[in-house]
Description:
14% of the residues lie in helices and 43% in strands. The chain is mainly beta.
Amino acid sequence: MSQSIPSAPDWLELTVDGPNFRQVMGRYPTGVTVLTTIRAGQPVAMTANSIMSVSVDPLLMLACVERAARFHEAVLAAGVWGVSILPARAQPSAAWLATRGRPTSGMLDDVPHRIAPLTGVALLDESLGAMECRTAAVYPGGDHSIIVADVLSLHLAQDEEPALLYHRGRYGVAP
């Protein structure tokens, strides 16, 4: 029995620019999180999918934050931040916290959350998992900053729910 080798896909050659880069990277599904920090005693939050684990020994996380985002200045000043990993049912919260120009005060008023014990950042109640982080280093990354942090605490939901994904510019659900 012979096996056929699948043919190479028909690829479009694209101009190397921002919109095309976004289109190509949009083919890579990512999980959706909410990053939180504190400014003047108030929670500041944003939806993010550019996070990743860096190391297990020591425990390190990183997040890439656009320098033009209001969250950027707040997280650098605070030096602490939280990560809430979202389930599919949290899509309304993700969409709200991704809205550009939303009010800066009370942005979590309609999003159930708790204040984390070590850092005072907000962690979303509807999370699959969450962690508190303390910034260890910040590196320039084009129009973003790459923020590396020590992981201070870990929280895990006991329910198994599908995760919220972002793919091709839309929210989706992990199987």
